[in-house]
Specification:
Number of helices: 2
Bound molecules: iron/sulfur cluster
Structural class: mainly alpha
Length: 94
């Protein structure tokens, strides 16, 4: 192996590593999503209204722990619903 081959291999390795970065970043983004149309339509906000908040709403799908973002049965594909959030579709969890 000569100097040129070694340099080419090094460049190829660096280029390959850099090519993977966007895929890793985009796969992380696939897991986090917001349903903007539903948020607007139902006037979602990240703060509660009195005692009414997502964590005590019938439609809330909790995240891994009590403070984590979760989902909502009303907001298809949205994975960033705050347990402290609220919207006009709130319904008391029984
Ligand atoms: S319906 Fe509204 S208040 Fe209830 S969990 Fe979904 S976003 Fe939160």
């Amino acid at each position: 192996m000569n100097q040129t081959d070694s340099t080419r291999r090094r460049i190829f390795k660096i280029a390959s590593a850099l090519a993977i970065v966007p895929f890793i970043a985009s796969s992380a983004n696939v897991l986090a999503a917001q349903n903007g149309a539903m948020r607007t339509g139902l006037k979602y906000k990240d703060t509660p209204t009195g005692d009414k908040k997502c964590s005590n709403c019938y439609h809330f799908v909790p995240g891994p722990d009590a403070k984590s973002l979760g989902g909502c049965k009303m907001f298809a594909g949205d994975t960033e619903i705050s347990p402290e959030g609220y919207c006009s579709a709130w319904a008391l969890k029984k």
